[in-house]
Design a protein that fits this description.
367 residues, alpha+beta, BirA Bifunctional Protein, domain 2, two-stranded antiparallel ribbon, 12 helices, 9 strands, binds 3,4-dihydroxyphenylalanine
Length: 367
């Protein structure tokens, strides 16, 4: 029913023309809003507490009873249209704003980037971890000790007498002042002593670490290098256990090469031996064959790898271990040497210069 057909008089503000105008104004304002902020302000004007269409409700009291239903329906429908217009505009603006934001965040994945050079694990570090892993795989533990060591631990407890050439100042770097009896450890063997003094028996440990000697700096010597030390002390340990352990290590590191041990001398082992690796280049074929010399083993067929032996009872005694009950074996080899054989690194100086291309070329010490 339209107002023109109504016999009663409507109060101004709720007549059809006014209501239509209010709706049109609201629709126009919503359409003109281009941001959600502007739309919010327009919503407050047309649907907020003070909006004419909302205030019109109050005029309902003055509407003659006969017209109440019609005017009420008109106002309701008008508010619904305004609400609908607002909702549609809100949706459109939200979509526009999202589109604009996404466009702003767009990234061209095909643009060339400045490549930051990445580092590489140092082959010595990587190799020490691999060596350690071989023993962890057998249930051994990694042990550590200080690089500045008491000379008693570095020498005396290992049965290295005060007059042993290894103690001469030409080899050993002493920490100042000398009467404090501290040295930069010359080998990883002092970790044997520390392990026996602090760990419960039996002991199965390896210690990869840095050692220091007053050496030349050339292709085959650096004053700071690395060793890996092994120590087992348990009941009934024999040279056979030592040989089996080193064979396993050689097998993992070099793949299928034989080892041999030949007599030698170290103060802390008795008997002592050198452990040699079968040359994994010529496998001994170059021996006595001047036509086909082998650079790797100098046609010897074997490569010297490290020292080893049965732990000297004097060492056990110095650490309070009863040699009548316990026996053990120990070994120590150079990590740089191992890397040279395994990866064909020719010059030890490359290992300290820190050129990442060297590290990359050795693929982090992988075989
Ligand atoms: N400490 C010795 C060195 O630096 C290497 C070594 C030899 C370690 C025999 C041992 C061993 O544990 O039993 O030359």
């Amino acid at each position: 029913m339209s107002s023109s057909e109504s016999p009663a008089i409507e109060p101004t503000g709720v007549d059809a023309a006014t209501v239509d105008r209010l709706v049109t104004e609201a629709e126009r304002d919503f359409a003109a809003a281009t941001t959600s902020e502007e739309l919010k302000a327009a919503r407050a004007r047309h649907l907020g507490e003070k909006a004419p269409l909302v205030l019109a409700n109050r005029a309902m009291g003055h509407v003659p009873a006969a017209l109440k239903k019609e005017v009420g329906a008109r106002l309701g429908a008008a508010r619904a249209r305004v609400g609908q217009a607002h909702a549609e505009r809100l949706e459109a603006i939200a979509a526009e704003e999202l589109g604009a934001r996404l466009a702003g965040e767009w990234v061209d994945m095909t643009l060339p980037v400045d490549l930051v050079p990445t580092g590489a694990p140092h082959p010595i570090t990587a190799l020490m971890e691999q060596l350690g892993d071989v023993f962890i795989g057998m249930g051994w533990e990694i042990a550590e000790g200080p690089e500045v060591e008491a000379d008693w631990v570095n020498f005396d407890a290992l049965n290295i007498s005060p007059h042993h050439p290894a103690r001469a100042t030409s080899d050993t770097l002493f920490a100042d002042p000398v009467d404090h009896h501290l040295v930069l450890r010359t080998h990883t063997s002092p970790v044997q002593i520390r392990s026996l003094l602090t760990r419960p028996l039996p002991v199965y440990i390896v210690c990869p670490g840095k050692v220091y000697r007053a050496d030349e700096f050339d292709a085959t010597h650096v004053p700071v290098f690395h060793q890996i030390e092994g120590l087992v002390v348990d009941k009934g340990i024999t040279l056979g256990h030592l040989k089996g352990t080193l064979d396993h290590l050689a097998d993992v590191m070099f793949g299928g090469v034989r080892t041999r041990i030949r007599p030698s001398y170290f103060p802390f082992t008795e008997p002592s031996a050198e452990i040699d690796l079968e040359c994994f280049v010529c496998h001994g074929a170059s021996v006595g064959d001047p036509e086909h010399p082998c650079r790797t083993c100098s046609s010897e067929g074997w490569i010297e790898w490290g020292g080893c032996g049965v732990v000297n009872p004097r060492v056990l005694t110095a650490c309070g271990v009863d040699p009548e009950i316990y026996s053990g074996f120990a070994f120590g080899m150079g990590v740089e040497r191992t890397l040279m054989f395994r990866n064909g690194a020719q010059d030890m100086r490359d290992m300290v210069e820190g050129d990442v291309r060297f590290s990359r070329s050795l693929k982090g010490g992988a075989r």
